[in-house]
Amino acid sequence: MTTDTSKDTLQKFIFDNAAVRGELVEISNAWREIQSRHVYPKAVRALLGEMVAAAALLSANLKFNGSIVMQIHGDGLVKLLVVECDANLRMRATAKLREGAEVPDDASVAQLLNQHGHGRFVITLDPQDKVPGQQPYQGVVPLVGEDIATVIENYMLRSEQMDTKLWLAADENVARGLLLQKLPRNSSIEGQVKQASEEEDLETWTRAVMLGQTLKQEELLTTDVETLLRRLFWEETIRVFDPLHPVFHCSCSREKVGNMLKMLGKEEVESALHDLGELGINCDFCGKHYGFDAVDCAQLFASDTTADGLAPASTIKH
Length: 318
Hints:
Blueprint: E1 9-15, E2 20-27, H1 29-35, H2 42-59, E3 66-73, E4 78-86, E5 90-97, H3 109-113, E6 120-127, E7 137-142, H4 148-160, E8 163-170, E9 175-182, H5 198-212, H6 217-222, H7 225-233, E10 238-240, E11 247-248, H8 254-264, H9 266-276, E12 279-282, E13 289-292, H10 294-302, H11 306-309
């Protein structure tokens, strides 16, 4: 089935002759697809939706064929938030709450994720076509800030040395966001012929941030990308690019689940089989079920590669 991308749009733009760029994103169909697998409390849904919008905004500037994986490991009511988005804006997301957690609708980020000051934010840049020995780049920062936007701004400043401002909002219908970045001097900026002076760059950046700060969360939730762009920056000279379209996509597979079982080790897998009879693994992102019985697991550990050890598709159990 073809995904309707009419409401899932990422619009990149640059300020003419200044080292300042921006993006606006609106994710509706893909966001509802993510939510269709789980029922999240209102406050958790809002946090996850804001991360979905932020991941799309950051992924749109990836310079390699790979993914951004954003994770928040919480020490509050929420154990984990994960959003993954690749350079083609294919994305998936999930959240895990602590057992028995009762989440108030107005729960703060601190209550949800950082009750004891041990929450942390992790961004992993994971190239798809790694050269031998190449490891994903991972940046880890404390959860400093009262909202997700501030946490990510702090990460970008500390890890990427890049001035970044974010405005994010999400409800059950849509996740939207605005990103502004002040680029380093002498950056090669797509679509620009010349650059302004350093003073002009700073003036443009300051003015753009002031305009962004006029944006209220309710306005962000209820206004489409085209209208927001025109409403915020109608007095600026900006250049827009062809829109991009985020979509939901889960990259889980039977082979990846098999790899996970092999990493657990033969002894642990055989012990689990003895207790359960069959191992059933559900994908946290899309809910797909993968079943492995004793024969399946024996084939896994008897083969040199996971692909060779997997049962044919006709024998996969659902």
